[in-house]
Amino acid sequence: MALIGVQLVVSLLAASIMQRMAPHCSFARWLLCNGSLFRFKHPSEGELCALAGKQMPSKPNKRDRRQNGESKPLTVPKDIDLNLEKAPVSVLDALVLRFFLEYQWLIDFAVYAMGIYIFTESYFCMVDPAKEVHIGAIWCVLTVVCCLKSLHSLMSHYFSSEEGGERSVCLAFGFMSLLVAMLVLVVREDYLEFGLEPGFNSLFDNLEVFAKQQGFSEWSIPVTKLTVKLGLAAVCAFIGALLAFPGLRLAQTHLDAVQLNSDRPLIQLLLHMGFLAPVVVIVLWIKPIARDFLGNAPMGKSSVTLISSPVFDSVRLWTVVVLCCLRLALTRYHLQAYLNLSQKWVDQMKKEAGRIAAIDIQRKVSRVFCYLSIVALQYILPVLIILFSTLALKALGDFSWCGAEPAPGVTPALVMPTPTPILPGMDDDEEGMEEFEEDIQVTVARLTEGFSALRAVLTPLFFRGLFAFLTWWVAACQVISSLFGIYFHQYLMQN
């Protein structure tokens, strides 16, 4: 199993290019600042006074402030004819956004990870995959971990809020996700075909074999399947809390995007398809609806096999990837629908009576644009988690894109490489060079031994269950939170 090879060279080259090209060429920066997104500028006090039909008050000097105290804020009627000025989002505007640097790094990292994964898959078409480590899968796993970390940073921002309403929403969705996860984990494999049970059995058996190979003959695993499932349910609750506000935000931007494109039926159809994409992902792992129906379709008194089991696995992978690409392609419509909240709030303000401070209007309009990068992360990150967990499922689970029969997932034998001994009779230079080469060989041998032991314990059977469940659970959390968001914005907000 080679470690120092073409894959590693390409990975190091991609990491170097990403570091050097980020200030000059960034896909994440282009996504927001390519001229297709328009923000709304907040009106100045002079413009508000002109619309209200009053003269701009002069600023008091320091003596007047000491004599009269603090000056009253400028107020204008709410029903003034205010129309916000549009401006395309520029790079200078985006640099001051909150979480923009995190957004730029993560999106660019995902783009380079996708490139490395595509290269690795093409490379494995020419070599035997069993002889090398799939570095593209490692990049996919790192992308999933970085997405979860960024969502945790966003949730920590909500927890630090003084109001406390966001904290309550995250906790409520976390507890609800815990209950749903505990119900899902007790469902039999005949209904939800994640493969968790075979994966856990393979993991425990391989751990016992590995312990005996290391000399722990009396060692036994003190962890039961119930404990593992409880821990997995806790992780599911944490993911559910992370995806609470992304789902609520998705519901709001979906409704606004559909209304914004009311004269474009094709775009509306694509928006509805993108919104219902997580539902399709959920159905793909429900065995009676998906595999049993296509594998043994009823035809009168008999059944007909439409597609084989390996072909169904490939179709399922392709379906998830295509749906994720569709949702990523609709990012601009959702972000523009969010930016239009400024004008939407102004139109709602015109219907109200009374007066409002000019500074409140400016803050309300500016706040929408300030959270643009956060909204972009909330929309893109769940899609990236589903996409890259599916790619990791294909690579680590030994599936195929073309419907070939997957590998049985057996445990590979551990091979302990031995370093080359130093031959006697060498001079100092040759001996020093030989010692240097020997150190490199020993390091490579130890890394190879570690990866071999890891592959012996974590087999493809285990990865199939783990990443299939992760993909399905993220989609389920998005369905729950987004449907609740639809109900909230359509009925509770109107009442």
From TrEMBL:
**Annotated region (Disordered), positions in chain:** 55-74
Q: Which residues form the signal peptide?
A: 1-28
Q: Where, if anywhere, are coiled coils annotated?
A: none
Q: Does the keyword Iron apply?
A: no
**What InterPro entries does UniProt report for this protein, alphabetically?**
Transmembrane_161A/B
Under Pfam families, the record lists:
Tmemb_161AB
Q: What is this protein called?
A: Transmembrane protein 161A
Q: Which organism is it from?
A: Umbra pygmaea (Eastern mudminnow)
**What taxonomic ancestry is recorded?**
Eukaryota, Metazoa, Chordata, Craniata, Vertebrata
